[in-house]
Specification:
Elements (H helix, E strand, L loop, with lengths): L1 E9 L4 E5 L9 H8 L4 H8 L2 E3 L6 E9 L7 H5 L1 E4 L3 E5 L3 E5 L13 E3 L4 E10 L1 H4 L5 E7 L17
Parallel strand pairs: 4-10
Antiparallel strand pairs: 1-4, 2-3, 2-7, 5-9, 6-9, 7-8, 9-10
Length: 165
């Protein structure tokens, strides 16, 4: 099982797990806007598996742990402090997977924000778990689990990872 973690900030209301190849041509705000905001870009990338929304839709910075592999799981303590979990999302990784604010998606590695996830190429099933950090007693807000896709999953395609009640 692999693991990566870090503090991830956004001023655009969305942290995402994404891989660089589909965004290799994004080099400035105009190309970012054209790729993600025009013609339903965000939903298109979610459905294709090139980007997974992870956050609650608010600006700010949160602590993330990402675990991947067939045995990726929550710890016992994390399980006790899950507030809500997402349904699975599809991630099709080919290259350079990262967690960052959506506004930091770029084809230029020198401009990277967030942190890398050393994921092998393939089809993956991603679930996000919101943790009650105060009750947990540690600075941890989200745990993201990435497991190999079985090909049988139904994937969520909403820009909001959690159902609003």
């Amino acid at each position: 099982m692999g693991q990566a973690n870090g503090l991830v900030a956004t001023d655009a209301g969305m942290q995402v797990l994404w891989h660089r190849k589909p965004f290799s041509h994004v080099v400035d705000y105009d190309t970012w806007d054209e790729e993600l905001l025009e013609d339903g870009g965000i939903p298109r990338h979610i459905e294709a598996g090139s980007m997974v929304p992870l956050s609650t839709g608010m600006d700010g910075a949160w602590e993330y742990i990402v675990r991947w592999g067939a045995d990726a799981a929550l710890t016992e303590a994390e399980q006790q402090h899950v507030v809500v979990r997402s349904e699975p999302y599809l991630l099709v990784s080919e290259t350079d997977v990262r967690v960052s604010g959506i506004e930091h998606i770029t084809g230029n590695a020198e401009e990277d924000e967030g942190f890398p996830v050393q994921l092998e190429p393939g089809r993956w099933s991603v679930t996000t778990h919101l943790i009650d950090a105060e009750a947990f007693g540690e600075p941890l807000d989200f745990v993201v689990l990435i497991k190999p896709s079985t090909g049988q999953e139904r994937y969520r395609t909403s820009e909001q990872p959690f159902e609003r009640k």
